[in-house]
Amino acid sequence: MGQHPGTTAPERQTGFRVEQVVILTDEQYRQFQECGLVEDQIFLFEYNDKMWFDPGDLCWHCVLVKGETSRDGILVEAEGYSYARYAAFARIAAGCGCGMPMSTMNTQQKRRSK
Prior knowledge:
Layout: H1 9-12, E1 15-24, H2 26-36, H3 42-46, E2 52-54, E3 59-67, E4 72-77, E5 86-91, E6 102-104, H4 107-110
Parallel strand pairs: 1-3, 1-6
Antiparallel strand pairs: 2-3, 3-4, 4-5
């Protein structure tokens, strides 16, 4: 989010802030990586109030979706939708998550069928 050299200056200067960490089981996270970015995910809709872009600060406020044991995650800003409208892969540093709101989700119960 925001570091591609071909973008305009304001886009290169955008940052992000994780407002909520959502921890899925490792299997649910694998499924989210494979098809969850384009399919409706009710848990994303439930965290809509945690995701927005602040043009004043040039900051993406987002949700970090990760697996229980994963060392990576996906930053999501859904723009009010129940799918990942904007997403970015993120490596997670050791100790990341301290002081951030976290929740464990069972997406099998939360996934909306089409």
